[in-house]
Amino acid sequence: MVNNVQGPGSVGAALPSANSVSAVQGANKMAAAQAGAANPAQGANKTAAGQAAAAADAASGGANTQDRFLKLLVTQMKNQDPLNPMDNAQVTSQMAQLSTVSGIDKVNSTLKALSDSMSAGQAMSATSMIGRGALVPGSTMDLSKGQAVGGLDLAQGADSVKVLIKDGANNVVRTMQMGAQKPGVVPLAWDGMDDAGKELADGTYKISAEAVAGDKTSAATTLSFGMVSGVAPGTGGAKLDVGKLGIFNLSDVKQVL
């Protein structure tokens, strides 16, 4: 009795060739096209179904990558040479690489979802600031009916602080001595009077400040006052529309009035 023994190449020969597979696929596509031409409604339904499937495939790119890897690995193992099989260490290494990449993708997806959720929550919370005044970095004060509001942001305490208010021609119209101040935000109010006690016209004026601590004099950060008119989510968190002062990050707001 003679036993039939398959050689190393018989396994690969049992698999369909690429040309035969392509021929079958081409025939199937032609049949599908003819069916779609015979029945336009059915063809439209198939098109919609194909678009939905494509969208689902795009949304699950990581899962598809893992599936393709596993299919290739299984095919490789099926068609390996029985006399020279794949090394277990090689298979383990490939599986470990796939697991690492898949894990990183999942972590990145989770972090992005968490970041988007936090940004949306921050923007929603910031909507409570709409219609309220805020002090943000700036170098101007708007005088209206004898009132103007601004502020200073001191990184450290000062023995004395001097504020200069200038008109459009860059002339100093008012000098204000603020005395000793602690670190932090210092509100600033101006009654619209110049150094001679004359009432000045409404408009936009420039402000600057100097802080003296010991024998050192440094420029202090000035703050402008504006009304928050809108909030929108953005990169890095919520963005506040503070009228003509511009768009600011939520972290730029030093004080809400």
What features would you describe in this structure?
The protein has 257 residues and is an alpha+beta fold. The chain has a five-stranded antiparallel β-sheet with strand order 6-3-9-1-13, with no helix packed on it. Helix 2 crosses helix 3 and helix 4 packs antiparallel against helix 5. The chain is elongated, with a radius of gyration of 36 Å. It starts with 7 loop residues before the first helix and ends with a strand.
Topology:
Layout: H1 8-14, H2 18-38, H3 40-59, H4 61-78, H5 88-126, E1 133-137, E2 140-143, E3 148-154, E4 158-166, E5 172-181, E6 184-190, E7 203-213, E8 216-219, E9 221-227, E10 230-234, E11 237-241, E12 247-249, E13 255-256
Helix pairs in contact: 2-3, 4-5
Summarize the structure.
By secondary structure, this protein is α+β, with helices and mostly antiparallel strands. It is built from 5 helices and 13 strands. Helix 2 packs across helix 3.
Percent of sequence in beta strands: 25-35%
Shape: elongated
Outline the biggest β-sheet.
Answer: 5 strands, antiparallel
Report the top-level CATH class of the domain at 129-256. Answer: Mainly Beta
SSE run:
HHHHHEEEEEEEEEEEEE
> What structural category do the secondary elements indicate?
alpha+beta
Q: The CATH topology of the domain at 129-256 is what?
A: Immunoglobulin-like
- Measured on Cα atoms, how large is the radius of gyration? 36 Å
Number of E strands: 13
- Mean pLDDT across residues: 75
Q: Which regions contain 5 or more consecutive residues with pLDDT less than 50? A: 1-56
Distance between the termini: 101 Å
Q: Output the number of helix runs.
A: 5
Arrangement of strands in the largest sheet: 6-3-9-1-13
CATH architecture of the domain at 129-256: Sandwich
Overall helicity:
40-55%
